[in-house]
Design a protein that fits this description.
Layout (H helix, E strand, L loop, with lengths): L6 H11 L16 E5 L2 E4 L4 E4 L2 H4 L8 H11 L13 H13 L4 E7 L2 H18 L7 E5 L8 H4 L20 E3 L16 H10 L3 E6 L3 E2 L5 E2 L2 H14 L2 E5 L23 E4 L11 E6 H9 L15 H16 L2 H16 L8 E7 L2 E6 L5 H10 L2 E2 L6 E4 L7 H19 L2
Helix pairs in contact: 3-10, 4-10, 5-9, 7-8, 11-13
């Protein structure tokens, strides 16, 4: 084995050769080497301890180094770490299916275990398209999607981002065009205005003969803007999709498993989608795994068609280690009073971030469940703001004009107060410059 790298050598190799998410190789962002992570704390190689406000991009809902999940991984790896899912099965995958069936609406009976959130969306799109082919309506091959959303970074999912203001406008001319609908005009806690559904209603009325599905992020649009909208929109969307025979795909990759205060964001409106996508927190943030769930009506139509199969099958589909982590994570979530924990986090985020509302540089502060967002009038400079946040002893990763917190459900009141105070201090310091 080569000799162990010093921290400086590690950083130099990283800077010269590793491409980080949404970064430049010529002008890379500053990165911080992690030596360990436990609970709500990330420890850097220099000894600095940072309170984590991101839950590893919203996935580590139980924090880090979780003994129950670690034990499940250790037990599984002593048996086998992976076998192909084609022609074989195993207990972790089947047990995960049982848990998901218990947690989700009865209509959703069939589960495709995918590698990642983006792939689960790809699978959902394939399900929708194959369904309409199977029922002899092949003209229904277009997708309706809300502006301001985000559904992944693969080519099919990039096409679901707003072509004018989304994250993937660079590739606009290379992507499949879709029907983009203005995001719901009524925010989450405002009085519902039924005019907010008019753009969707008009789109479905005009294009339902060619529309296969409507895809949306229920209640919370995540990486596309951290916008919270009224649950009544979901109820009306469900009604319209039924009326015009358009499938409803719910992307709960970011919102699933309690993040919004309900187990799933669709629960705010008591609706069941035709296809449900889950990911991120599914394994408690330990390994990449996602799930696409659908109804017997859709699954049977696809399976009875002349191909007889859903045309997708990743090499690492149903990985037993990831499934074991998911089983342990779901059991842990269900054994704890997560609802009251998320409610407490919501109240503390509201209190802690409230001072930001008084700053001229801040456009809006909004909180829902274990999500706190400070939207600035202008985009922040990550190279400037990130070191300032680290100096406060907190790990927060802003993007665009959004400085947001999605802490783990096990974060303490003291740690959350340090997080919010740190965010307020940094925003205040930038506003005074």
């Amino acid at each position: 084995m080569p000799p162990s790298l010093t921290t400086n050598e590690l950083l130099e190799l990283d800077r010269n050769h590793l491409w980080h998410p949404y970064s430049s190789m010529l002008h890379p962002d500053t990165v911080y080497p992690v030596s360990s992570a436990d609970g709500h704390t990330i420890t850097l190689e220099g000894g600095e301890r940072l309170i984590d406000g991101m839950s590893s991009w919203w996935s580590a809902i139980h924090g880090y180094n979780v003994s129950e999940i670690n034990r499940a991984l250790e037990e599984q790896i002593s048996q086998f770490s992976h076998v192909m899912f084609g022609g074989l099965t195993h207990r972790p995958a089947v047990e995960l299916a049982r848990r998901l069936l218990e947690l989700t609406p009865p209509l959703l009976q069939h589960i495709f275990l995918a590698d990642s959130g983006s792939i689960s969306i790809e699978v959902a799109l394939k399900m929708a398209l194959q369904y309409w082919i199977a029922v002899e309506q092949p003209a229904k091959r277009e997708i309706a999607v809300l502006q301001g959303g985000y559904h992944g970074d693969t080519f099919a999912t990039m096409a679901l981002a707003d072509p004018e203001n989304g994250m993937h406008t660079l590739f606009h001319h290379h992507l499949t065009p879709h029907h983009f609908i203005p995001r719901p005009a009524t925010p989450f806690n405002h009085e519902w205005d039924d005019e907010a559904i008019t753009p969707l209603q008009n789109t479905l009325e005009q294009h339902h003969t060619t529309l296969a599905a409507l895809i949306l992020e229920p209640v919370v649009q995540g990486a596309g803007g951290m916008y919270f909208y009224h649950p009544q929109y979901l109820q009306r969307a469900r009604q319209l999709c039924d009326q015009y025979q358009v499938l409803l795909i719910a992307d709960e990759i970011a919102t699933g498993f309690g993040r919004t205060g309900e187990l799933f964001a669709c629960d705010h409106a008591s609706i069941t989608p035709d296809i449900l996508c889950l990911g991120k927190a599914l394994t408690g943030g330990t390994l990449s795994l996602a799930a696409t769930m659908t109804s017997h009506t859709i699954a049977s139509a696809i399976s009875e068609y002349k191909t007889g199969t859903l045309m997708h099958g990743p090499t690492f589909m149903g990985n037993p280690l990831a499934c074991s982590a998911a089983n342990a994570s779901i059991d842990l979530l269900c054994s704890r009073p997560w609802q009251s924990a998320v409610k407490q986090i919501e109240q503390e985020l509201q209190q802690g971030l409230a001072p930001c509302s008084e700053l001229n540089s801040v456009k809006e502060v909004r909180v829902l469940g274990a999500i706190g967002v400070v939207e600035m009038h202008k985009a922040v400079d990550l190279r400037v703001i990130q070191p300032l946040l680290v100096k406060q002893g907190i790990w927060v990763r802003p993007f665009g004009s959004l400085i947001y917190l999605m802490p783990s459900y096990v974060i303490t009141t003291e740690a959350l107060q340090r997080l919010t105070r740190g965010v307020v201090a940094v925003i205040s310091s930038l506003a005074s410059e």
